[in-house]
Amino acid sequence: MLGDNIDAVGWANCGEIDVMENIGREPSTVHGTIHGPGYSGANGIGGSYGLPNNQKFADEFHVYAAEWTENKIAFYVDGNLYKTLTPKDLPARKVWVYDHPFFMILNLAIGGSWGGVPDATTVFPQTLLIDYVRVYRR
Predict the structure, then answer these.
(1) Which CATH number does the domain housing residue 86 bear?
(2) 21 is catalytic
(3) In whole angstroms, what is the distance from residue 95 CA to residue 119 CA?
(4) What is the DSSP letter of 91?
(5) Is residue 82 classed exposed, middle or buried when 0-12, 13-18 and 19+ CB atoms within 10 A define those classes?
(6) Which of 54, 64, 88, 127 is deepest in the core (most CB within 10 A)?
(7) Residue 6 located in a structural domain
(8) Is residue 128 part of a domain?
């Protein structure tokens, strides 16, 4: 998710909440991360969740969730809480920018500095299957 003020303040000042990221070289791991001013890109703040016994996330559907309140973002996989972030988790003198509306992005990204450049072992085409998306408001 990206802050809806991205056009006015730019990335990462708008804030970004990655509810779930999975990169090809880590098929058994997903990441939940926040990015903001001074803690973005490789310095994003978050955690990871791994499946046991080298199971791969791509082999079946899973439920990924972020519970976002005024001063907390909690990340879940299949109902299991694996990381909670609050303003206290930010580096010194950095700003919590999760106090305004965000919009969702659901994509299958390939390449980039984190995922790496596709090579001869990269399988194409790739498919992203999403069963449903739900948003709840208190």
Answers:
(1) 2.60.120.200
(2) yes
(3) 38
(4) P
(5) middle
(6) 64
(7) yes
(8) no
The DSSP code for 39 is: B
Query: 16, 26, 60, 70: which one is catalytic?
Result: 16
Reported pTM: 0.94
Place of tokens 């996330």: 57
Query: How many other β-carbons are positioned within 10 Å of the β-carbon of residue 16?
Result: 20
As a whole number, mean pLDDT of residues 4-17 equals 98
Rounded to whole angstroms, the Cα distance separating 101 from 107 reads: 20
Total count of domains within the chain: 1
Residue 53 φ/ψ, nearest 5 degrees: 55, 35
Say how far apart CA 4 and CA 2 lie, in whole Å: 6
How confident is residue 138, by pLDDT bands cut at 50, 70 and 90?
A: confident
Range(s) of the domain holding residue 80: 2-115
Give the confidence band of 62 by pLDDT, cuts at 50, 70, 90: very high
Cβ partners under 8 Å of residue 118, min gap 6: 110, 111, 124
Q: Are the C-beta atoms of 71 and 86 separated by less than 8 Å?
A: yes
Give the integer Cα–Cα distance in Å for 28 and 8. 37
Known active-site residue 70: no
